[in-house]
Amino acid sequence: MAEDTGRSESAGAPDASALALLAAANSEEARILLRKQARLVDLQIADLEREDRVRHWSLRVHHINDLLKLAFGIGAVCVALMITVALGAMMWNAHEATGLVIQPIKAPPDFAERGLDGTVLAQRLLDKLNGMVRQADKWSFRSADSIGGNWGDDSKVEIPETGISVFELQRFLRRSLGHETIMSGELYRTASGIALTVRVGADSGATFKGREQDIDALLTRAAEALLLQTQPYRYVFLLYAQGRPAPVIAPIARILADSATGPERIWLRSAYAEQLSFAGRFRDANTVEAQTIVEAPDFPSGPFDMAPSQWVVGHLQAAYDNASVARRIIRRGAPADFRPDVTPFFEANIGSFADDIVGAYRDAIIDDKAQLQTVGFDIEVSGPLALANDYALDHDLAAARAVLTQHHLLSDGTLLSAEYVITTGPDLPNFHLHADLGDWAGAIEALGEADRAALARGNMNDLRHTFVWPWLAYSWARVGRLEAARDLIARTPHDCTLCLEMRGRIAATGHDWRGAAYWFNRAISDAPSLPFAETDWGEMLLRASKFDDAIAKFEIAQTKSPHFADPLELSGEALMQVNRSDLALAKFEEANKYASHWGRLHLKWGEALLWSGDKDGAQKQFAIAATLDLSIADKSELERMRATHG
After folding, report:
1. CATH H superfamily, domain 557-646
2. Are 184 and 105 in contact (CB under 8 A)?
3. How far apart are CA 564 and CA 568, in angstroms?
4. 192 φ/ψ angles, rounded to the nearest 5 degrees
5. Residues 6+ apart with CB under 8 A from 441
6. Containing H/E element for 208?
7. Where in the chain are the domains?
8. What is the pLDDT of residues 373-397, one digit of tens each?
9. Using an 8 Å Cβ cutoff, are 185 and 198 in contact?
10. Which fold has domain 100-244?
11. Is the pTM of this model over 0.85?
């Protein structure tokens, strides 16, 4: 307890130092000292606050300085990057440059005084070049971008500049890295007039001389020479557009094709083959086209060009095969080097060829109309004639006449020119109009006009022998001139499908059934995909009252060409003869899908309905037949039917 009490008292007593301070504080000196001490503390606090503000300001300045340094560094990097990107873009654009640059043509000072300084002359030369390109491209399937040396819309006259500039740098890069076509030239006086020299790049150039007043003609000749040197493919089509004759163009195209490589060679060879065909050298064209097909099997112009030239020489199976190949290629998608705007024409045109060769005339009519609505390749004459021809073959004679009348196309000889035949195929619309009506005298007259026109052209003997003569020989046979028919058909080639078929028809007309069968069989072997020989053979058997055999031939023909109306209609006639009018009705109805304006079809359809007991249906068909074209014999039969069963 005593120990605890002592601790308690000791804790409650004032500390000795505290008592001393307390005593000192009571003195004046102590109070002054404390005030000074407090003042010193205040000053120290203020100083520390100033130092803190200065330190914070300094830190802020350093921070801003660091940010500025960073921003400057980033800016410098960005500027450097932008310069690098811009330079890279300039170098890339320069590398891809393919345009045409014509430098000002050096000319005597007095030409400049007359407004014909170097820049003006260069611009006139450029205008002529661009005009020639437009002329050439009208006739070409090829896209401009795929033509070697093409400059497209990037053509200009170079304007001289002095000093160093961005434009000078661009020009330097395009010259160094790009593929621009640079043309230059000089105009100078000679003893007899003036001379104009033009060149591409560093080539020696070509010189053209004339009088001062001939400056425009000299520029034209210079432009042609420059186009030949830079774009030979377009040059060939320019010659064609200018109306140069094919026998002149073909050798030039051959030389250019032989010196070309890669796609240029393929396209130039196609142009060469086309000019051979236009010159009437169809067999030579076939040889060139065959080479193209071997080297470039996916190039549609090879089989496209070959189809009509094979047709002209009578090789119808080859013509059909090539037309079908070209059609398949283009339907898969036109190659990148084809002009998109001509692809619809290409497809419709080759489709019409393929349809015609197998008798699908209603399909061909659709194609004919389609090609007339697309980019034209001088088909203002041949296009409507081809349409009239297909209408006639489809037994729509009124439509055929309407087209011929609308376009004032009265002679089949108009069509028998090499260019028309290659463009839309060999057609004889007036002949087929007369033949379908059994007007063989009119048919012979139409063929005579066509043959004389082809003979006058001097380069169409192939077509005369494989196309006109076979039809003419058959027409003679139909009017009783059998010996003349046999003599003429004997002068036609044996590697000609139509010639073999007409040999069979002529034999059948003379009731030489065995001879006819022989020739029909030869025609089938020559062109196994075509339905005509079986159809002719079946018709011969029908007229010979061998109805079951005839039906069998018609069935084969229908299998080969389901859209060919003739074997369907003839099969219906044969079925009626074996008392199967019910089956005949189905054949007539099917035939009507492809030849709905065929007068004889509706006549026989009505007859089948009569035999089936449908008198009202028969009268409807007879009424339709009465509004359509009929031969004299069919008109008589229709009148008898309506009078007997009306």
Report:
1. Tetratricopeptide repeat domain (1.25.40.10)
2. yes
3. 7
4. -110, 0
5. 434, 479
6. strand 206-210
7. 39-96, 100-244, 557-646
8. 886 666 888 899 999 999 999 999 9
9. yes
10. Rossmann fold (3.40.50)
11. no
